[in-house]
Amino acid sequence: MQLLIVKDEAEFGQTAARLVCEFLAQKPESTLVFPTGNTPLSMYEELVAQFASEKVSFSRATLVELDDYYGIALQDPRNLFAWLQNIFLRQVDFRPVRLFRFNTEAEDAAAEAARMESILQAHGGIDLLVLGLGPNGHIGFNEPGSELLGATRVVNLTHESLISNARYWGEIDNVPSQGFTLGLNVLRKAAKTILLVNGSHKAGILKQMVEGPITDLLPATYLREMPNVLVLANAAAASLLSRKPSLLNEHD
Ligand code: PGA
Q1: Which pLDDT tens digit goes with each residue over 37-80?
Q2: What is d(CA 215, CA 213) in angstroms, rounded to the nearest whole number?
Q3: Overall average pLDDT of the 110-115 stretch
Q4: What's the average model confidence in pLDDT over 123-130?
Q5: What's the rounded mean pLDDT across residues 171-183?
Q6: Could you state, in order of their start, the residue ranges of all structural domains in the chain?
Q7: 252 in active site
Q8: Nearest alpha-carbon partner for 202 in 48, 1, 12
Q9: Are strands 67-70 and 178-181 parallel, antiparallel or unpaired?
Q10: Which residues line ligand 1 (CB under 6 A)?
Q11: Whether 138 is catalytic
């Protein structure tokens, strides 16, 4: 696992976007899995800018949704897919037929989860996985207690995840209590993974993830056993790490 530390939000978004653009330049027909939340906002802003200046295209790429709520209407604007559409997908040139989302109102959740896994399988798995780090160490909605070989499924969201998502729902009681997530069984086989960690409020969980024991109680620690993983953190998020690589561009 490689650790890359950048100084601030601007450099964080630019670096994340550059890594995505470089990957797509190598393999334009990549299958992508991208995160939602506050962390990737500056990356999406930069990717949209790069697209506007014709430096990147997503027209040959496929995107499979990482996670979403379960038990709310497909048209509900608070779905995670709707968030991703507004912030990113609609502003670039993905082909709609190559966007795959969870059906948040599926009657048969197990069949829906299996459908998403078979889509990934048909595409040969994930080429580029970009993740945020949950305040409780979750990746996607693989909450503490998730097994390394866990399948794509519906999970009960932990109290910490409900608190973290309450900002989008007015109050915690309104947040759906369950969510779909791609399972670690498929995430761990991604050809390349970039974990984005931004802000001093993530410093403690990043330290545990990098330096603590590998445990199902902190699913992000599994990344340490996965191939080709890059952790991109800003200086504030990396502030508690015992051993830090030097800052990117420190000597510029
Ligand atoms: P955040 O969420 O980027 O809004 O902190 C990350 C996550 O919960 O996965």
Answers
A1: 999 999 999 999 999 999 999 999 999 999 999 999 999 999 99
A2: 6
A3: 98
A4: 98
A5: 96
A6: 9-196+210-232
A7: no
A8: 12
A9: antiparallel
A10: 37-39, 132, 134, 164
A11: yes
User: pLDDT-based confidence at 251, cuts 50/70/90?
Assistant: very low
Distance CA 143, CA 236 (A): 24
What's the pLDDT band for 118 if we cut at 50, 70, 90?
very high
So what CATH class is 9-196+210-232?
alpha beta
The 10s digit of each residue's pLDDT in 227-244 is 999 999 999 999 999 988
Q: How far, in whole angstroms, is CA 69 from its chain's centroid? A: 15
- Residue 92 predicted with pLDDT over 80: yes
The closest alpha carbon to 19, from 100, 40, 246, 179, belongs to: 40
* Alpha-carbon dihedral 63, 138, 155, 184, rounded to 10 degrees: 60
What is the C-alpha separation between 252 and 249, in angstroms, rounded? 5
Catalytic residue among 46, 112, 143, 234: 143
143 in catalytic set:
yes
CA distances from 73 to 39, 46, 89, 97 (A): 26, 31, 20, 21
CA of 233 to the centre of ligand 1 (A): 13
Q: Are strands 192-197 and 2-6 parallel, antiparallel or unpaired?
A: unpaired
**Side chain identity, residue 176:** P
- How many whole angstroms from 100 Cα to the centroid of ligand 1? 21
Instruction: State the catalytic residue, choosing from 138, 165, 198, 234.
Output: 138
> Which residues, other chains included, contact 208 with Cβ-Cβ below 8 Å and sequence gap of 6+?
137, 218, 221
